[in-house]
Design a protein that fits this description.
single chain, 137 residues, 81% helix, 0% strand
Length: 137
């Protein structure tokens, strides 16, 4: 594979990951009532408006937004961060496994976790493979 093409595809996957994780930033600014409606639409029924639920949702949204920022920084200069990109790809694969096993364990409908599983699997595999192609040369 041509090195320029490899870097472009790797950068696109990193940007895709940055968006996928970073989109949760909107959870930091949306009103809790709207968040409940969105989560109910995703079949995450049973969420109630209590302070601890809101707190943990905001904490999770902040953490995921930060992960998205890290992927964005990796995408800006993938050659500089080869080692960290490998860790990021493996992280995504681990998250795919966690999503799948947790969804099955809790007997959730596949539609509740399929996007997380597919997103993390696709991006994690692509990032890991493309980043390691250069290491073999």
């Amino acid at each position: 594979m041509n090195e320029k093409v490899r870097i472009r595809i790797l950068r696109l996957l990193l940007l895709f990951s940055a968006f996928g994780w970073g989109i949760t930033f909107v959870g930091l600014v949306l009103p809790w009532e709207l968040i409940i409606n969105i989560l109910t639409g995703l079949q995450l029924i049973g969420i109630t408006e209590v302070a601890i639920s809101s707190y943990w949702f905001k904490m999770t949204a902040g953490t995921y937004s930060f992960i998205g920022l890290i992927f964005l920084l990796l995408a800006l200069n993938p050659q500089k961060y080869e080692t960290l990109i490998t860790v990021a790809g493996l992280f995504m694969l681990a998250e795919a496994l966690i999503s799948l096993t947790s969804g099955i364990f809790f007997k959730l409908p596949f539609s509740s976790f399929c996007f997380d599983f597919i997103f993390c699997s696709f991006a994690g595999l692509g990032i890991t493979i493309l980043n390691n192609i250069s290491r073999k040369k």
